[in-house]
């Protein structure tokens, strides 16, 4: 497994509230991106806490779960509970939350866990496929036919999310399972990337550069404005691993 990841503060923010993790073993690889939100430094706290809780849960419980779908769901729920409980510790942390999108790669399967509007894509010679559905106000408008996908890209409320880690004691977690074959790539990113690059542009760059596209994608997002933190993870499947 080849994995590259990077998080960047962007051009406008004073603080990077994104967080990225990577965990590898002989049996699996885990990657995740989180985009925190909240006053003061609460977003930074939420994204880091959720990411590390997810990582630790998978590390400590991987062999206890035959069904890795349930492993990812329970790991995401644990991350949610940790952030929620931490938000009660101090006034400045009240109401903090974070997106969290992860991918557990085990042999020929990829298990995607998702809450919020950070995204996961599957990229291969056949094209690019968006694996996650944004939990956002604008996505709801698209689903009910009020606006088109093109209109959604420039909607004034496109960053308003409807589901996040840590806001409530319980959260609904989306889990998606896909085949993960030789030379397939999984890309995870926060909306600091997708606000500036289309799905087609991401495909062209990643199809050419593979996992080495991480820095180029971030550079382009910054060149086009960089109004948000930007995080990208790309994992490529090796032959038989």
How much of the sequence lies in strands comes to: 25-35%
Task: Tell me the CATH topology.
Answer: Phosphatase 2c, domain 1
Strands, total number: 11
CATH superfamily: PPM-type phosphatase domain
Helix content: 25-40%
The coarse overall form would be globular
For the sheet with most strands, the description reads:
6 strands, antiparallel
How big is the Rg? Answer: 17 Å
Structural class: alpha+beta
* Elements, N to C (H/E): EEEHHEEEEEHHEEHHHE
The overall pLDDT, averaged over residues, is: 92
N/C terminus separation: 6 Å
CATH class: Alpha Beta
Tally of helical runs:
7
- The CATH architecture assignment turns out to be 4-Layer Sandwich
Total discrete domains: 1
Description:
InterPro entries: PP2C (IPR015655), PPM-type-like_dom_sf (IPR036457), PPM-type_phosphatase-like_dom (IPR001932). It comes from Caloramator australicus RC3. Residues 2-237 form the PPM-type phosphatase domain. It holds the Pfam family PP2C_2. The protein is 32% helix and 28% strand. With 241 residues, it is of the alpha+beta class. It has one domain (2-236): PPM-type phosphatase domain (Phosphatase 2c, domain 1, 4-Layer Sandwich). Strands 2, 3, 4, 5, 6 and 9 form a six-stranded antiparallel sheet that branches. A hairpin with a 2-residue loop joins strand 5 and strand 6. The longest helix is centred in the N-terminal third of the chain and has 20 residues, at 42-61. The termini are close together.
Give a brief outline of the structure:
With 241 residues, the protein is an alpha+beta fold.
Q: Any descriptors?
A:
241 residues; Phosphatase 2c, domain 1; alpha+beta; 5-stranded antiparallel beta sheet; 6-stranded antiparallel beta sheet; 11 strands
């Amino acid at each position: 497994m080849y994995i590259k990841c990077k998080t960047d503060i962007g051009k406008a923010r004073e603080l990077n509230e994104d967080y990225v993790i990577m965990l590898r073993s002989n049996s699996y690889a885990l990657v995740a991106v989180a985009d925190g939100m909240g006053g003061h430094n609460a977003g930074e706290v939420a994204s880091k806490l959720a990411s590390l809780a997810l990582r630790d849960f998978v590390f400590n419980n991987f062999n206890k779960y035959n069904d890795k779908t349930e492993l990812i769901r329970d790991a995401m729920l644990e991350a949610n509970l940790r952030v929620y409980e931490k938000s009660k510790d101090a006034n400045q942390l009240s109401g903090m939350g974070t997106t969290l999108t992860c991918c557990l790669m085990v042999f020929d399967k990829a298990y995607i866990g998702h809450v919020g509007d950070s995204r996961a894509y599957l990229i291969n010679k056949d094209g690019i496929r968006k694996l996650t559905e944004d939990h956002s106000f604008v996505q709801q408008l698209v689903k009910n036919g009020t606006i088109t996908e093109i209109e959604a890209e420039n909607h004034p409320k496109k960053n308003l999310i409807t589901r996040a880690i840590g806001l409530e004691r319980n959260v609904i977690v989306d889990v998606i399972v896909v085949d993960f074959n030789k030379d397939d790539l999984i890309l995870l990113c926060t909306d600091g990337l997708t606000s500036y690059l289309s799905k087609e542009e991401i495909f062209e760059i990643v199809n050419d550069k593979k996992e080495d596209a991480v820095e180029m994608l971030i550079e382009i997002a910054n060149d086009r404005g960089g109004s948000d933190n930007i995080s990208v993870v790309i994992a490529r499947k090796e032959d038989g691993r």
